Every structure is written in structure tokens, then in C-alpha cells.
């Protein structure tokens, strides 16, 4: 929401620059996305008056070219203009020679049809104010000061704060709300607008009736009537304000409703009173199949879940979203029916999304409007309409309020403030902060009792008030302390600190993160939402249905993630589409499955990784090797080792879908639980994510790792005596289905305590289908130098046992 800084300063005296004010708001939790100059790049444009039209120069593109005499006070200029609204006595935007328009367009004298034109009468589009061009030159009020700088006169020599409050702070979606925050942050008094409409004529209850037939969706509806209005253009100051916040001026009546929306934060709607049948407002659900034409001229199909504003004959507005074309205020309107109401946020959000109508009113209603402030908003709008359109406000207000709001009170204990913050601000300071935020406060002994106003729907409990105090008082006031712990300082997994102070899941995540970042992978953080089409493709046969969101942000984020690979595959897809073919990413994530427990869902924790493209960055001294399934398997083993899961080994078939059937493996713990799955993503899965290169992935179950007995870290001194290496190669028959892991496990068992390391370094296939597997064995003793005889005896024992056990032969050459 864009707010001119001078508008804020009408509510509160500030000695801060716009940037400093934005910084104060940011530190208090109110995001300001940008602070930008309001005026376009315009210099030297002034207010000029057309004193005379000296002669006509012919037609150009359907417009008459007129030679005008333009005065800016002491100077006069001859200017050629073809705008249709060019006439004597008009005061308009004039760019004399030397002025600069947007795009660094410098104005000078030019010759048109043999006549010199000294400057230019400008349209809105030429000034950078909007797209209006056909309407002609930008005309100002007749009392605009001649020769004055246009930008200063329009109040555009200002800065705009682009405020983006969080959804739980709809009170900051207005100038008043932001000014209230700044008043509290600076200790300055807040000035609210004077709201006192002058009422005259018949009581409003004799002019309009209101009936609420859906009280669950409309808790309050008020109506006022302003008679004798003359609809026309708004004054320059109002048009300037609306342009500054990004709105297009329409007419004085409509512009007032938009102005009050920005000023006080409550949406309003003005109906042409004469177009409302029987002067009766009915707030009801739409009828199934009912069709309605909105202000934008589009006919829309409604359903019975939507709330409409109707008269006794038909719908005249979609509640909280947009009014109807049949009852809009036009130039012929003389009596206005002004609506100010409160609608259910969920209903407005669903209606707005279903119809594809995103309006400023819906944006505020769906976040929760202020049910009490709507009275002031209605009175303020009626007052301004009467002032600017020359009408009379009928006595009183029709107020249909079937279920009145009950005030909510919260007791704030000073002991609680100290316990949460670690320090206690002076009670007088805490009370002043809360009062400055518009929270009525009463002293109750050492404690405070706060009555939560209707505009602060986010305050529900004691700790909410503690947060209000600290964000205004300043987070820098909080002392820096080291978290306490019952444990002792230690170093584990490369993480230094008091590990006992961290929860096990966080320690596990930090360990994994350090291991994989150290291995060259980048961490991805993705949403836990899932696309139904991709979820169906990744869902294993017989797996439960994914959990569906009741109110999804979009159709492709309608489910909770059920497969751990969705996030990393999406990250790979984004990179590949942006010409980054070499990707190595990981993610610590959760999947969600239906469960019959208390929460109705079971959350499983995973670390997933995905690789595609080159194994390493190309260099002159390295081969152009591509990542493969063994990289995924090795990284999964690396994670398990970092987590202290010992005894893991290759296992059988996995449970996760989405892999190529002949390239899918598992790693199991000593107890047989599947700790990790790895393989190549199937072609169908890659196509669904828009990836045209092979992708290799692995998923490690952090829940299984946590439940597995961890191998304790043990210190081993550096070896003092040299190692001895021997190579052994065995030939397997073509019909034998032995795996290298089975042979390696038996080899390590028979080698005894002298074996320090065993590495498979060569695989060779003979033409007849036989295989040769070669291992390098490293032997070493801690107390002596090994002799050849000792190593030979161990080697002979290994060879004899393996050949007898598996029926394989030692390869001699």
C-alpha cells in the first residue's frame, strides 16, 4: 500500500526523514518495501493560462491546431496546441522552453506549419501522471496560482512509503494506522481527522431500510443518505492524493470513498439512491445460477456461497468485492446511498478468488475489517461528499447490528513481561507504549488491564502485549545472554557450543547441513505444498491420499507434500530452465500423511538431494565426468556416517516411487530398517518437472536415523608405524549373482584386526560374461611394523576362505 509521507504527517508531527520513518517502522515489524520520490522526472513545468486563441492553423490527426497566447504571469508565450479542451481562460500544465518532461525530454521552441511554438501545453500522459491523453491538456482549478511550479502545487514534491504489513495487521492498511504506529514509536501525539457531518432534512430511517438475511456473513451493515449532490470532477488536492497512491480519479463522490478507504482503512461503497428498488437494502446469499454485471462491465455467474448486496428485485453489489453497473454513481446522480459494513473475511476471500476479482476493498475485508470504525468511516465520507458535491446529509444512520461485539480484556503481569524478555521496562514506560498504540490501559496493582480495541484483531493473549511493548521499546534493549544448559560444553559433529541446549532435531539438521555443504551441495528451501498432478505421478501404489488444503493459495499448491523429492526436483527444474545445467542441491524437509491420531496427520522428516550435469566444475586437469547414481549413493552414505548411523549396508527394494525400476537402491541399518533410498529419477517424473537431463537423487530418513543407535565418536591416535598394501582380484562366474558388498563384508570379517581399509578399485568384464573384482587392502598395526610373513598369512587365509565360501577364483594376471 502506497502512502505519501506528507499525508502521514497530517496525523502526527514527525521530525524524521521519509527514510528514517521507514526504518523505524521496519524495526517495529511493519515492512516498508520501498521509499520512492512521488513526482515523476518533471522539472520546470508551471501553471499557465490560455489568455487568447489568436488563430487556427488547420487540422492534424483529427484535431484543430490552435495558436494560443499562454501567460504565466510576467511572461507570455505563443503556443500551438491541438487538444480538444483548449479554450480561453483555462489554467493548465505548461512546459516553457527549458522545461524537462519524463524520459529527459527537453522542451524548446519549435516551428509547426511555419509558426513558432514557444513551449508545450501538456497532457497527463506527457507529464507521467497517467495514461489520459485523448482528454487533452491537464486542466487545473481556476484559482491555481499562475506561474507556480506544477509539482509543488499538486503536492507531488513528496516521498511515498510502500507499506506491506503482515496479514495479521490490517490496522496498518491505512494512513491513520501507519501514523498511529509512528506516533507510538516517536512518543508523539496522534491527531485524528475531525469527523462532524452537518446533518439536515428527513431522518435517514425514513429514506432507506436495511435487512440482513445472512447474519453469519454480515455482522453489521450501516447506511447513510446524502441528497442534492452534484457529481463532477474532484478538486485538485483530492485528485493528487489519489494519483499519489496509484488510483485514477473518477468523480467527487467515488473519489471520496476511495480517499476514506486509504485514510481510515475501511472500504465503502456509494450507490445511486434512485436505482435502488424500494429504497431497501437486503444482505443475502446469492441464488444458485444468479448472474450479475459488475462495475467493470463483466457479467459474472454467482453461487449460493457468495454474499451479495441486493434490493427487493435483484443483486446490486457483490459484498466486499465490487458494486454493480446498474446502481453506480453517474453524472446524473443527485442522491447517494452510502454503504459501510463488516463482512466475514473467509467469505470475501473465497468470493474474490472464485470470481478472479482482486480489489482494494476485498484485500482489506479478507484480512479483517474494524467493525466499530466503520461508523467513523461512513460519517467521514458523508461529510466530504457534502462538502465537495454540495449535498445534505440526512439525519442519523441506519445501523443493522444483530450481534454486537463484546470487548475483550487482557491482564498483563509485569512478572510475565520480565520472564519473556529477560528484562523489565519501567511499568510507566510499558503503560505509555500501550496507550500510544491506542490500547486503553488501567492499572491493577503492579499489573495492567488492557481493553483490546476492535482494530487490533491480532491481540488475543498476554504474550501478544509483551510483543507490542518490546517492538516499540526496542529490541536493542534486550540483554544478550548465552542460553542455559544442563549439559556440558562439547564439540560434536564439528559444531562447537553447548549442544545440550539445542533440541535433537536441530542438532541433526545442523549436522546434515554441515556435511552436505562441505561436500559441495547447496541447500534449497521450498514450500511444503504440492501440485496434485505431480503428487499423483510420485504417489506409490497403495499409498494414502495426500492431505488437501482447505484454502490453497493456488491450484498447483492444493496438497501437502507426500513425496520428499518434490522440493529438490523443483529446485533442479528452476536452475535448468535458467541455463544452469550443473546442479547439486539438498533440502531438509517434511512429508505429510493422513493419520488417525490427534492431529490427523503424520509428519516424516527427510534430507533429500538431487544431482544433474557435471560432477565437478570443468578444468584442464580433470576429466568431464558426469554425476551418476553412485554419487547419490555416496552422499547418502556420507549423511548416515555424519549422523553416526553405523553398520548401514545396501538393501533390497525401496518404497519411494519416482525412480527408474532398474536404477533404484536402498541403504538399510543393522536392524533392517530402510535408512535411505537412492537412484535415477524416472523419465516421466523428469518430464513433469520440465527437466531434460538425467537426475540422480537420494532421500535419507531422519526419523530412522534418530531411532538408530548411534556409533559413538572415538578418538584414535595417528599411526606411528607404516602400513602395508596388497591387491586381491577375484573372478566370478557368468552365472553367479554375488554382489561386491557380500564379498567385501566377508573379506573384512576374515582379515581380522590388522585390516585398516578395503577399497574396490577395479571392475572388469570378460567377453564370456565373467567378472573380475579387485580390492586394495591396507594393513597396519598400532604397536609394531608388520612383516611380509604376517601379511602373507592373512592374505592366504582371506583367499582360501573366499574361494571356498563363494566358489570364486583368485585372478593371477
How many strand units? 43
The biggest sheet amounts to: 7 strands, mixed
CA radius of gyration = 38 Å
Shape: elongated
Distance between the termini: 79 Å
Note the beta-strand portion: 25-35%
Helix content: 25-40%
What value does the average pLDDT take? 90
Strand order of the largest sheet: 31-34-35-39-38-37-36
Structural class: alpha+beta
Q: Uncertain segments of ≥5 residues (pLDDT<50)?
A: 486-500
Describe the protein's architecture and organization.
The chain is α+β, with helices and mostly antiparallel strands. 26% of the residues lie in helices and 29% in strands. The chain contains 21 helices and 43 strands. It has a seven-stranded mixed β-sheet, with helices on both faces.
Short description:
The chain is of the alpha+beta class and 813 residues long.
